[in-house]
C-alpha cells in the first residue's frame, strides 16, 4: 500500500486520529443498522414467504444487496482494523506511518472480491460485475448507505402491508361468514336474491385479495411521492375498502329482510283484517243496493262488484312465503299488498256511499219534514188543516215503498213553503172559525 503515493497532502497525527474516530463511529452505526435489518420481522417474513410478482423480484435484489452489504462491511471493518493497528505502533507516528495511513484512510485502498460484487441481481456501484473493485472508505460508506436504504425500504414496505391488510381482511372475512349464515337463515341465497350474489362475489374477492397480499405485498403499496425516507408510503386498501362497503350494503339489506321476518305475522294479520273489512263493506253495499231498489223508485243505483280474488290469491302467496321463510320474496309482496288492500277498502267504502246515497237523501227529507213540523207546533199552528194536508201528503210519499224521491222532495218543499208563509203572515183574531193560510175562512 502507498506505492503510488498518498491522495493529496499527507495527514498529520491529529487528522488521522479525528478520521479514525469518525470512521469508528460510522462503523458502529452501520453495524447497529445491519444487525437491526437482520433481525427485522419483515425480513424474516420475506425469507420464509412464497413470494410472487413484484415482491419476488425486489426481494431477490434486496437479498443480494444485503449479502453485498455484509461483504462491504467486512471489508470496511478490516480496513479500519488495519488503520488502527498502524496508528497504535507508536505514540508519535512516523512519516512512513502517516503516509500509509493517508493512503488507507483517503485512497481507494479497500478491495472487495469479485465473488461478492458479482452476486446475482445485486446492484454494484458502477453497474458492473468485475472480478474485484476498490473503494475508498468514504465511498464504501456511501455505497453501504445506498444499499441499506433500498433494502430497508423494501422490507419496511412489505412488513407494513402484511401488518395492515391480512388482519383486516381476516376480520372482514369473519364478519362476512356471520353475514352469510344470517343471510342463509332468511332465505338470501346466491341465485335467489341479489344480496346473496353479492356475498358470493365478496367472498371470492376477499379470498383472492388475501392470497395476493400475502404473496405479493408490494403490489398493494403506494409510495409517498417525493419521500426519500425508507418505508415512505402506505398500504393500498382500495379493494378492501370497496368490499367492506359492499358488505355493509348487504348487511343493511338483510336487516330489512329480518325486519320483515319479525313483523310478517302482524302485517299478514292486519292485511287479512283490512281485506275482510273491505269484503264486509262490499257485502253491506250489495245488501243496501237491494234495499234501495226496493224502497226508492226512479233511481239509478250503481252495481256493486265482488271482492277481488287476485288480492286473496296474493295474500295466500304471502302466507306461503312466510311458511317457507322466503323473507326476501315476502318483503316486496307485503309492501304491494298493503297499498292495494288500503285502496280496496277505500273503494268498498266509496261503493257503499254511492249505493246508499238515495237512502241518505230520503233520510234527510224525512228529517227536514219533521223539523218543520216541530217548528210549526212551537208556534201553535200544528192544527192548521192546510199544513196538516201538506204534511200528510209529504209523509205518505216519504214513508211509502218504493219512494219517488223527486216527487217526495217537491212535497216536502210545498210543506216548507206553506209553513213559512203561515209563520210570516200577521195573526188574525179568531172570529168563529179557522182560517186558511191566506186569511180566508174555510167553507
Description:
- The longest helix is centred in the middle third of the chain and has 58 residues, at 238-295.
- The strands form 3 sheets. Strands 1-2 form a two-stranded antiparallel sheet. A two-stranded antiparallel sheet has the order 3-4. It has a two-stranded parallel ribbon with strand order 5-6.
- The protein has helices at residues 13-39, 41-48, 53-87, 95-106, 114-117, 137-185, 194-215, 238-295, 309-323, 327-378, 385-398, 405-424; strands at 110-113, 132-135, 221-223, 233-235, 296-297, 403-404.
- Residues 1-5, 116-120, 124-128 and 431-443 have low confidence and may be disordered.
- Helices cover 71% and strands 4% of the residues.
- α2 (41-48) crosses α6 (137-185) and α6 (137-185) runs antiparallel to α7 (194-215).
- The chain starts with 12 loop residues before the first helix and ends in a 19-residue tail after the last helix.
Spatial ordering of strands, largest sheet: 1-2
How large is the radius of gyration? 53 Å
Distance between the termini: 169 Å
Characterize the main sheet.
2 strands, antiparallel
In terms of DSSP E residues, the strand content is under 5%
Can you give the mean pLDDT? Answer: 83
Order of helices and strands: HHHHEHEHHEEHEHHHEH
Which stretches of 5+ consecutive residues score pLDDT under 50?
A: 1-5, 116-120, 124-128, 431-443
Question: What's the β-strand tally?
Answer: 6
- The tally of helices reads 12
Amino acid at each position: 500500500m502507498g506505492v503510488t503515493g498518498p491522495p493529496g497532502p499527507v495527514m498529520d497525527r491529529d487528522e488521522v486520529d479525528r478520521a479514525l474516530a469518525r470512521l469508528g463511529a460510522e462503523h458502529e452505526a452501520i453495524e447497529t443498522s445491519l444487525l437491526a435489518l437482520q433481525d427485522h420481522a419483515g425480513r424474516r417474513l420475506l425469507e420464509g414467504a412464497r413470494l410472487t410478482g413484484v415482491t419476488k423480484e425486489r426481494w431477490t435484489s434486496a437479498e443480494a444487496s444485503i449479502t453485498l452489504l455484509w461483504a462491504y462491511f467486512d471489508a470496511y471493518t478490516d480496513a479500519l482494523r488495519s488503520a488502527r493497528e498502524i496508528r497504535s505502533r507508536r505514540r508519535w507516528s512516523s512519516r512512513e506511518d502517516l503516509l500509509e495511513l493517508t493512503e488507507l484512510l483517503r485512497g481507494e485502498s479497500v478491495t472487495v472480491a469479485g465473488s461478492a460484487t458479482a452476486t446475482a441481481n445485486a446492484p454494484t456501484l458502477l453497474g458492473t460485475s468485475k472480478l474485484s473493485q476498490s473503494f475508498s472508505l468514504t465511498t464504501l460508506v456511501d455505497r453501504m448507505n445506498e444499499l441499506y436504504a433500498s433494502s430497508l425500504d423494501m422490507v419496511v414496505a412489505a412488513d407494513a402491508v402484511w401488518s395492515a391488510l391480512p388482519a383486516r381482511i381476516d376480520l372482514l372475512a369473519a364478519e362476512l361468514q356471520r353475514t352469510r349464515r344470517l343471510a342463509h337463515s332468511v332465505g338470501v341465497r346466491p341465485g335467489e336474491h341479489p344480496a346473496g350474489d353479492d356475498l358470493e362475489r365478496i367472498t371470492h374477492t376477499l379470498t383472492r385479495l388475501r392470497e395476493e397480499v400475502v404473496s405479493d405485498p408490494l403490489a398493494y403499496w403506494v409510495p409517498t411521492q417525493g419521500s426519500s425516507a425508507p418505508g415512505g408510503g402506505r398500504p393500498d386498501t382500495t379493494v378492501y375498502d370497496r368490499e367492506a362497503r359492499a358488505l355493509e350494503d348487504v348487511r343493511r339489506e338483510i336487516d330489512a329482510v329480518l325486519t320483515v321476518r319479525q313483523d310478517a305475522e302482524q302485517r299478514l294479520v292486519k292485511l287479512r283484517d283490512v281485506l275482510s273489512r273491505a269484503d264486509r263493506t262490499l257485502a253491506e253495499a250489495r245488501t243496501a243496493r237491494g234495499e234501495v231498489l226496493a224502497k226508492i223508485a226512479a233511481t239509478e243505483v250503481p252495481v256493486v262488484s265482488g271482492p277481488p280474488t287476485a288480492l286473496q290469491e296474493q295474500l295466500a302467496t304471502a302466507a306461503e312465503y312466510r311458511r317457507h321463510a322466503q323473507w326476501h320474496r315476502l318483503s316486496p309482496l307485503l309492501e304491494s299488498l298493503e297499498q292495494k288492500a288500503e285502496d280496496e277498502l277505500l273503494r268498498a267504502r266509496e261503493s257503499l256511499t254511492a249505493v246508499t246515497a238515495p237512502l241518505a237523501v230520503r233520510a234527510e227529507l224525512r228529517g227536514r219534514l219533521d223539523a218543520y213540523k216541530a217548528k210549526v207546533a212551537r208556534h201553535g199552528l200544528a192544527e192548521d188543516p192546510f199544513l196538516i194536508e201538506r204534511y200528510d201528503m209529504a209523509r205518505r210519499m216519504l214513508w211509502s215503498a218504493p219512494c219517488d224521491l223527486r216527487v217526495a222532495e217537491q212535497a216536502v218543499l210545498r210543506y216548507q213553503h206553506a209553513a213559512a208563509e203561515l209563520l210570516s203572515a200577521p195573526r188574525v183574531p179568531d172570529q168563529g172559525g179557522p182560517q186558511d193560510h191566506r186569511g180566508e175562512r174555510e167553507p
